[in-house]
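user: Please supply your own:

assistant:
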Amino acid sequence: MDTRTARPFSFSFNTSDYRILHIDPDQGRLYLGSREYLVSLDMQNINKEPLIIHWPAPAQRKGECQMTGKGRHGECANFVRLIEPWNRTHLYTCGTGAYKPICTFINRGWRAEVHFNPTNAFPVSFVLMNLFFFSSPLLHPDGNLYAGVPVDFMSTDPGIFRTMGSRPAVRSEQYDSRWLNEPVFVHMKQIPDSAERNDDKLYFFFREKSLDSGAGASPSVLARNDEGGQKSLVNKWTTFLKARLVCSVMGDDGVETFFDELRDVFIQPNQDERSPVVYGVFSTSGSVFKGSAVCVYSMADIRNVFNGPFAHKHGHNYQWTTYTGKIPYPRPGTCPGGTFTPGLKSTKEFSDEAVNFIRAHPLMYHPVYPIHKRPLVVRSGVDYRFTTIAVDQVDAVDGRYEVLFLGTDLGTVQKVIVLPKDPTTMEELTLEEVEVFRVNTFLKISFRPQHFNQQLYASSEAGLTQMSLHRCGVYGKACSDCCLARDPYCAWDGENCSAFTQATKRRSRRQDVKHGDPLRQCRGYNAKVERRLQEKVQFGVEGSSTFLECVPRSPQATIKWLYQREGRRKVLNREGEVLKTPQGVLLKTLTKADAGLYHCLATENNFKHTLARVSLRILDRDIAVALTTPDEEEEASRSRHQDPAAPTPALLLEPEMRLIQQYCQSYWEQLTAGGNSQADLPKRANRRHTEALKASGE
């Protein structure tokens, strides 16, 4: 694969709504679910023919679904929503089944293309009714399936469920807005609390309608070994707690803006499996202010909130306050048989007081604030929103860095790094933005950076795309550009900007992610680049416009144009006559005074260097007309129609003819470089040049 481009995949079958459901590093497979298809790709050789299973919903069920009024948007089909390893030989997979979910076991080694017989699948219990809203499900090695999902046909009964396996099926309390209030489940993860496995907890992340105002983001926690209550909350979670996630920024006017729509969550593991880092993507819920943000949370802060005071509505205004009464034993949210309750083997042994307390007080009083009490990345006043996130830890010469890959609803992926600027502020750098889909679409990105040549995969309703985590070649062939890029994946190897590896000889590599200082890193290389920079000759016609191109390789660079004539340089700043763009500068109406040498200077991190030199030559208007004088046939036709005669080439002066010759020679050289020779050029162009030479006396 060409690592400089994103590569979309197309399949021969008609489907849509692609979702990356599982990446298996041991088998080297990527499993993709879509409408009525299940696809397996070989990640070691992505060009290899994929393994395909066609799994449609039964025709009878499709008809029943359409009879209920569904199907206007193609919902009456089998959308594959779950693929999880069951054992070494089989996968457990589920589909929506046209609003009647079906599940089955699939052999990992199926043939290249299989039409799956729906009769081999079995319907699942009511707890998986609406798989359209599946959060990231978890199939535990003990055979239990955990998921957050609505269970009724109209999606009015959402819940958090455990089904299958040896443990009893349990769910969250029904129709109680204190527990769940119109939630949209985003992510879930099992995270241990201690070395004692009975302390393992499941964390669900979702957004829901706040009881007090608009939307809100919430993490919830429950014990994995929860079996429900004995008398109260029978077959319901007895350890369910939730809190509020805060992601906000304070404006210059003192008004706090909240990003309260949780869109995606990425859990970054650490060496200590009990302390992963939680990255959340948020957007604003209102239509007046459109923005997105990324906030980062520590598990220590999340645990402190769940170990803190409970929320309680009290007083004549029925406002939320801290619960000050007696907290029952065991403390609500505690796992049975864990570090603090070794004598309790099951939640069925919890006291009625403890169970009734958690039913009425599932919400914690304090919210969870992000690290440093502020977002890591903020976007406002833009025409897009972040929809998904993946984070990679990259080892560079000067340390380890977190690189964020942020998908947008415009079908692009932004590659962002955040660096400490000083002890109190952070500096956000957008390294690049890649268009992975050419249509506006909701992205979901997944990758395993430690495997498979560091590839990232993006899925959406439109399809699947593969792209490399690094594209070092786009930073150019100058040491300064490579250093200024501050991309931890890339380093200057003495000749090119290439992928950095720890095995590279330290003496030859140049990289400075923290400071991006080419003066220190690229001594001796900068002067060579300036000397190798060629002067480009460009021609313009008096009275017309021309565009001088200069595209900086770094989005952080600022561009300044200098105009040089008769040895003197000055800043190009002519209001109304010049239009500056990110790709260069447009001279609107050329005059002979515009002829001269133009320098494009880039400044970044106090480092200045020349990106382009353009020598602009201005052709007289009469010369331009002469160059476009029609041949004999056209002249005869013109005279028959009594058109006015064009100026003759004999009017041209000797200096002007030299400009024409240079222009034509430059034009021919460009064509020759493309594989053409002068003999291959149109005869009409050769004839014109001959006539011009005769007119000048040569």
